[in-house]
């Protein structure tokens, strides 16, 4: 799994060579991981700055009510915002933490004023802007015995 997390485009032959299996058993194991839902999809990681998304904002949102109906409505709405890369239901002083990518501070202001704060039930929004990434990983810390 570690090999695939570092290069999801490697061929079955390359993978089998790296993990020390012949190609047929390697492919069977890979297909089993996919059917078990361990591997959910294959993606390309795109550098946000190279496509004009230079601003990363971490947004904490508090709702005025935390019942199931309001939580579901908020989650359904933010799931439809292309700027929202991640959204977590949280413990603590905020109900949600979002990671938002936009082109500029003006674009963030537009997102905040015309989209996020217009969701019914949003009581408070607090934003922090990332200056630069220090650690960014996509591979899960899976250890094999």
In short:
By secondary structure, the chain is an alpha+beta fold.
Please summarize the sheet with the most strands: 4 strands, antiparallel
* Backbone structural class: alpha+beta
Q: DSSP helix count?
A: 5
* Radius of gyration over all CA atoms, rounded: 20 Å
Name of the CATH homologous superfamily of the largest domain? Lrp/AsnC effector binding domain/regulation of amino acid metabolism (RAM) domain
Distance N to C terminus: 12 Å
Roughly what fraction of the amino acids lie in strands?
15-25%
- Write the CATH fold name of the largest domain: Alpha-Beta Plaits
What is the percent of helical residues? 25-40%
**Number of folding domains?**
2
Tell me, what's the shape?
elongated
Average pLDDT metric: 95
- CATH architecture group name of the largest domain: 2-Layer Sandwich
